[in-house]
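Morning, I've got a small favour to ask if you have a moment. It would help a lot if you went through both lines with me. I owe you a coffee for this, so here goes:
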Amino acid sequence: YFMKTSKVLRNLNRGFLLSAVILIGVCAFVILQEMADKNLEPELKAMAQEFIADSDKRIVLPEEYRVFDESGSSDSLFDDDFINKITLSSSVDSGFYSDKPSLRKYSLSWLNSILMTQRSSQSYFTSAKTEIVQFNSFSVYNGKATLSFDVLFSCEVLSIGGSSAMDPVRQSETLTFEKEGDKWIITNYDTYRFQQFYNYSNGGEMT
């Protein structure tokens, strides 16, 4: 009986010891992951600052692409070739996007949308200024990260009727990042201010 009891206790001790080792390992992993996340946050915030500043230049179409049609018809202004030429050219890539063509194209869908909006509405940015005024939330999991923030956006616009300036408006935005090799890339840019621009260019107001 005594030997059986001793064997049971030894097995229990081994079980407790194994559980303790696993628990310590899990805790160590969580702590190290939290430390890595804290180190990553300022890196991606800096990347967001650079991306937003770069986006101000990308949304301004070259003069040769600012087409006006006095009849008001925009059908002839839709040209996928010019959109692809601008969004997918090497001049656009400032190190923010994937080297994979399909993912790169998806990541640039925000730029595609705003360029097409300008062509269809016949209202074009001649200058833009965007400033991140507040960072809101940051999360990272399994090689992906999201960063949300508020921006203050103002711009000057040229349309058939002439030039106008939009007063600064504050909007919330989100960037999604993904680890590709040894670098972080932007895979999605969630913004509402370009929809606001569309409303403005069609006679509404930026709100």
Observations:
- The beta strands are 123-141, 144-159, 162-180, 183-190.
